[in-house]
Specification:
Elements (H helix, E strand, L loop, with lengths): L3 H12 L3 H25 L8 E2 L6 H9 L4 H13 L2 H18 L12 H28 L8 E4 L8 E4 L3 H46 L1
Antiparallel strand pairs: 1-3, 2-3
Helix pairs in contact: 1-2, 1-5, 2-4, 2-7, 4-6, 5-6, 6-7
Amino acid sequence: MSWAFLRDLLSGVNKYSTGIGRIWVAVVFMFRLLVYVAAAENIWKHEHDEFECNIKQPGCENVCFDHFFPVSHIRLWALQLIMVSTPSLLVVFHVAYRENREKHHNQKLYRNPRKIDGGLLCTYLISLILKTGLEIVFLVLFYKLYNGFKIPRLVKCDIKPCPNTVDCYISKPTEKMIFLYFLVATSCLCIVLNLSELSYLIFKYFIKCYLKRHMNKQQ
């Protein structure tokens, strides 16, 4: 899978972000994207082939694997990375709209098209809310699909066509557990960063409005 598009997107977003936003980009790129490409993808690469049950009943092993792993961890993680990065496109498109508008009118319409104010501030806040919401949704989805943030060594399966309750073994559970905890920790860190940036921008906006109103009263 090529991650060039996501890498370019994060690089573009970094130009229009606040200091906290740049930390978020660094966390997503270094501690999520690179870890996924360099290590995590290989750990889950053969998870189906390495899932073994103590019975050779045709179909039993496949049914049990599908029951305990309805969606691959690594594919869900990849989808999460793409989804939480996509709202940043709103900011990129808004900046591009401002710049194209200035070119079309052939005059300076904004003090700085990339400055986070006015309509761009609203777009930026919406992107932060969407990113935070998507992070929470995926964490809840992980928890519901796998009955918690854990990977057991042994699971018991009694689903047809298995003739009775069989023991199935998951390969490298400790290694997978470490990366699962890492996934949850980085997701929580990104949520904290998004909420911090959201609070910072709202606080800055209200301070700016208050100072402007105060100056108008003095005048």
